[in-house]
Specification:
This protein is of the alpha+beta class. The protein folds into 3 domains: about 120 residues, Elongation Factor Tu (Ef-tu), domain 3 (Beta Barrel), CATH 2.40.30; about 240 residues, Rossmann fold (3-Layer(aba) Sandwich), CATH 3.40.50.300; about 140 residues, no CATH class. Helix content is about 30%, strand content about 25%. It has 18 helices and 30 strands. The chain has an 11-stranded mixed sheet. A hairpin with a 2-residue loop joins strand 17 and strand 18. It is elongated. It starts with 10 loop residues before the first strand and ends in a 23-residue tail after the last strand. The mean pLDDT is about 85. Pfam families: DUF87, HerA_C. This is Helicase HerA central domain-containing protein. Keywords: ATP-binding, DNA-binding, Helicase, Hydrolase, Isomerase, Nucleotide-binding. One of its GO terms (molecular function) is hydrolase activity.
Length: about 575
């Protein structure tokens, strides 16, 4: 066969030991291990990390050379002179990675259901065989011709073998890019972004540091920097998000805050549909009549002092579906601290009291101050559009990007967002939840969206809690990992500390691009989350150089050791360099 990988000019030796964990190969002569050139291709037989092919009886096997040694007797005879004059017979230990059809090598079998027999021939694997198979990983045979692929880089141990991978294999089961600082994660994400642009896919990047701002000038990339260019509308925050922002104490302040929000939502609904609610205005108050009783609104605030409760309850019931939908909060948030004061009136019989309950008001005073401080803060106002925003609505920009065929990538910059009060986590969680809700409505079924989350350890596995406020978990990305794949929303996390990512989220990652990892807990986190990660593969992680990675995953029948190519667009922040400063000697 012309496409047979079993080329006798690539012959290495014979299998002489077989176990479930590995096989050993006997080299009849050490000459077979030397580097040589065949058809303009450089072949290295005796290099640890090289790929080899084994010809079995019914199947072929692709393996990786893990170790090469000499028999004990020959090791004792080894010297500088004998090494060049005497024949040696090395033994190699090989990890079997996958099996394939002997007569149709393009048919790869997941899992290893059989092993080669003793005496099977072992060959050097050609670059063409490897490169052809990498393209097909994660793709059904009938879709191979139409599935987009992009150039990731080259094999670490053979720079002549290109690694072209399909978007489907990398992202369709979610992806995690992990590794220590300086390992090359930013370049890998940049290559992914270039792959998205090259193949015409869609992606949104949550960029916490502005590292990928260098892509902003690309014609296929749109961007929005929070605070300076856009805001996330507070109306899209849930009631839990608002509680996290304002942090009411549990038993005393939370009920008052919730009632104030409901009252402002009632006022918003009434003022939005004035003709339907028996409206009148005396120049000071807006009055709405329900069954002969009035709801009074003064400058957007529901007045409860000495008013009947029945009219308010009827108005509440009329708009109950809107008021109790706490995923959308349309109300005037700049009036919230004043409405909290209006809630501090006790109910007696059928109406609110004429005098304020000073005890309740005293308990709510710290909440009123906190709400007023948050709404008045320039950073918070810029982030969430409090008062009268002058920047663009981020939700509108996201929706415009999703329907714009001329744009492939949308970068959301967090570089101006402060780190205090966990506001970055709240904001990222709200964005994640918004995209998840869009995914649930099947927005991305026909045109999948990739969500990149850089420095994911900043946003995942987070709980908001202080001495007054009970713990609230921010779990939008956890939910995306667990359920959004079937909706066409794919998650790609980048982190230097996989141990800080929730186990549930990490276990949902179908693909791992693992750069250098040294910490034992980080390696164990990857080992427990990735089914294809074995001890032999993980043993290479501490020795990986900058830009080198091992790609493992459900759609990868074998781990791939790749040297990630240099992206055309370099990330903004590289490691700062020390500079020599010469001190001038005074005269």
């Amino acid at each position: 066969m012309s496409n047979s990988p079993f080329n006798h000019s690539h012959f290495l030796g014979y299998v002489n030991f077989v176990s479930p964990a590995f096989v050993k190969v006997h080299f009849p002569s050490s000459v077979l291990m030397k580097t040589f050139v065949h058809h303009a291709e450089v072949l290295r037989g005796g290099l640890v990390g090289n790929y080899i092919i084994i010809e079995g009886e019914e199947k072929g096997f692709l393996g990786k050379m893990l170790e090469i040694s000499l028999p004990e007797k020959e090791r004792l005879e080894l010297s500088e002179r004998t090494f060049s004059t005497k024949a040696f017979h090395p033994i190699g230990r090989i990890e079997i990675l996958l099996s394939f059809d002997l007569f149709d090598p393009s048919k790869i079998e997941k899992g290893i259901n059989s092993l080669p027999l003793i005496g099977s021939k072992v060959f050097i694997c050609s670059a063409e065989f490897l490169a052809t198979h990498f393209k097909t990983f994660g793709i059904k045979p009938e879709n191979i011709e139409h599935s987009p692929t992009f150039r990731m880089g080259n094999l670490i141990y053979d720079k002549n073998v290109p690694v072209n991978i399909s978007l489907q294999a990398i992202f369709s089961r979610h992806c995690a890019v992990v590794g220590t600082t300086g390992g090359g994660k930013s370049y890998t994400i940049s290559k992914f972004i270039e792959g998205v642009i090259e193949t015409g896919a869609k992606a949104i990047i949550l960029d916490p540091t502005g590292e990928y701002a260098t892509f902003d000038t690309h014609s296929k990339v749109d961007h929005s920097i929070l605070i300076s260019e856009s805001y996330f509308p507070y109306q899209n925050l849930t009631i839990n998000d608002l509680f996290v922002l304002f942090r009411p104490s549990g038993q005393v302040q939370q009920p008052v805050l919730l009632e104030a929000i409901k009252s402002l939502k009632v006022a918003h609904c009434l003022l939005e549909s004035i003709p339907n609610n028996g409206h009148s205005n005396n120049g000071i108050n807006d009055t709405f009549t329900f069954r002969g009783q009035q709801v009074i609104i003064n400058n957007g605030l529901v007045v409860k002092q000495n008013n009947l409760t029945a009219a308010y309850n009827n108005a509440y019931f009329t708009y109950k579906a809107v008021i109790e939908n706490f995923t959308i909060n349309n109300f005037s948030i700049n009036l919230l601290h004043k409405q909290i004061g209006n809630e501090c009136f006790q109910i007696f019989n059928d109406r609110w009291a004429n005098t304020r309950d000073e005890r309740n008001y005293g308990n709510a005073t710290s909440l009123i101050m906190r709400v007023n401080n948050v709404i008045s803060d320039n950073d918070y106002a810029g982030m969430f559009g409090f008062n009268t925003p002058t920047t663009s609505n981020l939700i509108t920009e996201i929706n415009d990007f999703l329907v714009n065929p001329q744009k492939n990538v949308f970068r959301i910059g967090f570089e101006n967002v402060p780190y205090n009060f966990q506001v970055r986590e709240i904001l990222a969680n709200s964005l994640g939840r918004y995209l998840l809700n869009k995914a649930r409505s099947n927005t991305f079924r026909e045109n999948p969206l990739i969500l990149f989350v850089d420095e994911a350890h900043q946003f995942l596995n987070k709980k908001v809690k202080d001495e007054y406020f009970e713990s609230t978990e921010l779990n939008a990305f956890d939910n995306i990992a667990k359920e959004s794949r079937k909706y066409g929303l794919f998650l790609c996390l980048s982190t230097q500390m996989p141990r800080d990512i929730p186990v549930g989220t990490l276990s949902q990652m179908g693909t791992f691009v693992t750069h250098r990892l040294i910490n034992y807990q980080d390696k164990e986190a990857i080992a427990s989350a990735c089914s294809t990660a074995n001890k032999e593969t993980l043993s290479f992680l501490p020795s990986l150089g900058s830009g080198e990675a091992i790609i493992m995953g459900v759609d990868f029948p074998m781990p791939i050791s790749v040297k990630v190519g240099l992206p055309s667009t370099i990330p903004k922040f590289d490691t700062p360099k020390f500079k020599m400063v010469k001190n001038e000697v005074p005269n």
